[in-house]
Amino acid sequence: MAAEQTPPPIPDEPKYGGFTRFEIELEFVQSLASPLYLNHLAALKYFENPAFVAYLAYLQYWTHPPYLKYLTYPGPTLKNLELLQQERFRRDIIDPDMMAMLMASGAKSAMEWPNSR
């Protein structure tokens, strides 16, 4: 995260392994942009854990300002975060075909983006 993007420090904010909660959650929510990572989480059965599903719902705050501006890849990050709110998607992402479809969709969007500007 660039220095100009770092939010102002909160006095006495606890650190976890040297990082703030904001930094840890930013890194995690951005990792959700990767279909491979989503498939990995599904294989480890994280999406079957009600506490983890509740955490995914909590992360919806990233869809609103002022947090939105900190996302490097807001399109796929927010799309996948939205999809993860659906039980069926959490169940289906274990399927390699679903993962491949998401990867192809992301690649297509990335290729079309410069022409859409």
UniProtKB/TrEMBL annotation:
UniProt-annotated location(s): Nucleus
A GO MF term: transcription coregulator activity
The organism's place on the tree of life at top rank: Eukaryota
Transmembrane segment boundaries: none
InterPro entries with a match to the protein in the record: Med31_sf, Mediator_Med31
Any single GO BP term: regulation of DNA-templated transcription
UniProt KW Transmembrane helix keyword: no
Cellular-component GO terms for this entry: mediator complex
Pfam annotation, one family: Med31
Keywords linked to the UniProt accession: Activator, Nucleus, Transcription, Transcription regulation
Gene3D superfamilies the UniProt entry points to: Mediator of RNA polymerase II, submodule Med31 (Soh1) (1.10.10.1340)
Keyword Cytoplasm attributed: no
Subunit structure: Component of the Mediator complex.
Protein family (similarity comment): Belongs to the Mediator complex subunit 31 family.
Function: Component of the Mediator complex, a coactivator involved in the regulated transcription of nearly all RNA polymerase II-dependent genes. Mediator functions as a bridge to convey information from gene-specific regulatory proteins to the basal RNA polymerase II transcription machinery. Mediator is recruited to promoters by direct interactions with regulatory proteins and serves as a scaffold for the assembly of a functional preinitiation complex with RNA polymerase II and the general transcription factors.
Protein name: Mediator of RNA polymerase II transcription subunit 31
